[in-house]
Amino acid sequence: MKKSFFIFLFTFLLLTISGSKVYAAAVNQIQTGTETMTGTTLNVGLCDSIDPNKTILFFTVTNNSNNVGHNLVAGEITDEESITFRRSTGGSSLSIAWQIIEYSSGVTVQRGSTVVGATTTNQAITAVADLQKTFPIISLLNNGTSFGTDDGALAEITSTTNLQFRCSAADFTVYWQVVEYDSCDVQTFNISLS
């Protein structure tokens, strides 16, 4: 008991003397849901209003079709009370499991959509404070009946004011979120798979 108290006291004094700051992102609310999508657009109403500038959207999809237009789904928080999912081709039934996490502090989110018209496309963003605490999340939609080199993209924050998309073939739309997360430490790697 005394040993753990002294370890706590030593850690507290060390942080106080060194002037180090400990950041923590505070979660305000989490909302989750599952949806079935049959058309090209699905609007989802949220139970409680959110602040889009402090909220991150995560989602996964499952489908039994091998059609690109059916499977590539883009998602975005469209306003304080809704999420919108889009795809190029409707018809097949697709399941979406989604989650939004709204933070009261420690997290700032920028979002938008970009038409990727070249194999390297740069998107200007509002300047972020620290690249080591910032990361992108993307989803994309594209048409077509089979997967090819134009059905994926790499996203990288290349400077404090630039989000870059790289791909093998262009002409599709990427929906993006740039997340500044005070209590994280981001490491980036560029890896080629064969």
Walk me through the structure:
This protein is mainly beta and 194 residues long. The chain is 11% helix and 47% strand. It contains two helices and twelve strands. The chain has a three-stranded antiparallel sheet, with no helix packed on it. A hairpin with a 2-residue loop joins strand 10 and strand 11. The radius of gyration is 20 Å and the shape is globular. The protein starts with a helix and ends in a 13-residue tail after the last strand.
Keyphrases for this structure?
mainly beta, 194 residues, three-stranded antiparallel beta sheet
Question: Quick recap of the structure?
Answer:
The chain is mainly beta and 194 residues long.
